[in-house]
Design a protein that fits this description.
single chain, mainly alpha, 11 helices, 0% strand
Length: 245
């Protein structure tokens, strides 16, 4: 019998993989949108031409996006490598000092309320399989959980999200450059701001999903963060333009 999840597609491998990397997509998108919009706002505040804004925007988009994705990749790889290092240490300890490790298992489950024969049965079951034994030690003693995410995919999704959502503030400038008179009133910053605020709201909602927080608060905080960054960049650009030009 087909489940409701399968009917709506929520049980598909693609959706499950996307959900697994949703956090990387959200935070890459937030950074991409905020930093690119700040560059655009700062350039407009400085009175720069659209062609210059496009150049600065794309330079920021690819440079910052690449840097962020490399950072995300290295962080994920370091976490995975650290887990494997401690896991090998636990295997060595089980092989070389099994009684000490067995006593640690006993102490862990004593603290959980197990005692007497039941405690000994739990200890015997866990220590009868080395892989199970190590997994318990990793979780209960070291508080470490294995991250199944691929570091390469973490970096790639961060980069793609940064580019896709970071392009939104630049979209109207590129469209206006290619198709002259793309906007009706010529206020490109207004159009860019409107599209970017919409993307901020969407990203904020997804951030609330990832963090399991209040969706309205998440949307509002993301909008305010983006607006604040843009206002700072705009007025800094405006002040510098008056001072230097």
């Amino acid at each position: 019998m087909v489940s409701e999840k399968e009917v709506h597609g929520f049980g598909s491998p693609f959706v499950e993989r996307f959900q697994e990397y949703l956090g990387e997509f959200v935070y890459g998108g937030i950074d991409g949108s905020v930093t690119t919009f700040a560059v655009v706002a700062g350039a407009v505040g400085a009175g720069l031409e659209s062609s210059v804004i496009i150049i600065l925007g794309f330079a920021n988009l690819f440079a910052d996006g690449f840097a962020m994705s490399i950072g995300a990749y290295l962080a994920a790889k370091s976490e995975k490598d650290n887990y494997q290092k401690h896991k090998q240490i636990e295997y060595w300890e089980i092989e070389n000092i099994p009684e000490k490790e067995k006593e640690e298992i006993r102490e862990i489950y004593q603290e959980k309320g197990f005692e007497g024969k039941l405690l000994e049965q739990v200890v015997d079951v866990i220590t009868s399989d080395k892989d199970r034994w190590v997994d318990v030690m990793m979780k209960e003693e070291l508080g470490m959980m294995e991250n199944s995410k691929s570091p390469f995919k973490v970096g790639l999704i961060t980069f793609v999200s940064f580019l896709l959502l970071g392009f939104i503030p630049l979209f109207v400038y590129v469209a206006d450059f290619i198709f002259e008179g793309f906007t009706t009133n010529g206020n490109l910053l207004l159009w860019s701001s409107s599209l970017t605020l919409f993307s901020f709201a969407a990203i904020g909602y997804l951030k609330g999903v990832v963090n399991q927080k209040n969706k309205f608060y998440s949307v509002l905080s993301t909008l305010l963060m983006g607006l604040f960054a843009a206002l700072v960049a705009y007025y800094v650009g405006d002040v510098l333009e008056k001072m230097l030009l």
